[in-house]
Amino acid sequence: MEIPPLFKQGASARLRVTVFALLSVVMLVVDARMHVLGTLRQGIGTVLYPFQRVAMMPRDAAVSVADYFSSLTALQKENQVLHQQQTVNAQLMQQARQLVAENAQLRKLLDMQQKVPVKSLVGEILYDARDPFTRKVILNRGSQQGVAAGQPVIDDVGIVGQVTRVFPFTSEVTLLTDKDQAIPVQVLRNGLRSVAYGRGQTGVLDLRFMPANADIQKGDTLVTSGIDGVYPPGLSVATVALVETRSADSFARIVCQPLAGIDRHRQLLVLLVEQNLPPRPEPDAADEKSAKLFKRRLRDSTRDTSGDDANATPKGNVSEERKGADKVTPPAAPAAAPAQSDGKEKAR
Is 46 helix (H, G, I), strand (E, B) or coil? Predict the structure, then answer.
């Protein structure tokens, strides 16, 4: 079938393919040997670069959005991990500081333990006593470790208190500032002896019944005198913080501040002092009988003299005499005296 003249396309497809193939081979050979098409290639690439960027914009935008959300998620996770790590590091830092302070305190206690001439035991404060009106702490050492009631408790500076109650594995320590606690002290500067009493307030001690002209100055250091047989002599107790004297008062007001870190430390030193105090003497039966007879005779004589107007004694003197009779213990009477007094009583 013959093609109409309208649809004729010139040379055949085979011829065109052959021509373009030969042209391509020639251009490849010429470019490879003479490099004459490099400038043309660069010019064409420069012209087509903006079109390439415009064509790549949708892809770049999609990649940027994906990278943004992935980076945001990664940053949030990293921030959370860093916050947790910061919290852990802060806790570890606090523990390290606490361990450093505890280590320093234990070193000081070890030095103090070597200086004290008696045997000692290191204990740790578990908690304060339940009574808010007392100054007491509980240690983790008891009778199983050799702790006994009455033993003194110190730290690296001085006296803290005294063991008042002992349990198998714990013990109760009454601090110096307790209102029922007293300790014999001595002024280090001049050797003046006195007794320091607790006031029931933290960081305050009182020196009571000291004359107004006593040689005590602000800043004097008080140490244990050792005359009570409980506290070893020479241990630091307190410093004088205030001395007030008034002309109308016969006693001076002296306020002291304890040297020991009662509220700052958890480790204390228990001095295992043996309480070798002599036993309390038992009252003599004859002395008790003589004292009762003396009081009875005094009471009867007071009744007899109160009825006589001429020899009457004022009521004030009678009350004072009764008070004196209650306080003063009469001397021991001879063996025959009780018998005679019994006979008089029967005669009456």
Answer: helix
Residue pLDDT, tens place only, 265-322 = 788 889 888 765 556 556 555 566 677 777 777 677 656 545 544 444 444 444 444 4
Q: What is the pTM of this model?
A: 0.54
Q: Which residue has the tokens 């490879």?
A: 32
Beta bridge partners of 26: none
**Count H helices, E strands: the chain?**
5, 12
Report how far residue 274's alpha carbon sits from residue 120's, in angstroms, rounded to the nearest whole number.
Answer: 11
Among residues 13, 269, 11, 9, the alpha carbon closest in space to that of 125 is found at: 269
Of residues 257, 230, 255, 233, the one with CA closest to residue 244: 255
- Using CA atoms of 335, 339, 344, 348 in order, give the dihedral in degrees to the nearest 10: 140
Asked if residues 102 and 253 have their Cβ atoms less than 8 Å apart, the reply is no
Which helix (H) or strand (E) covers residue 267, if one does?
strand 267-271
Q: What is the pLDDT of residues 11-39, one digit of tens each?
A: 677 888 898 899 888 888 887 877 777 77
Phi, psi (rounded to 5 degrees) for 220: -65, 145
Which residues are CB-neighbours of 273 under 8 A, at least 6 positions away? 118, 150, 151, 152, 230, 232
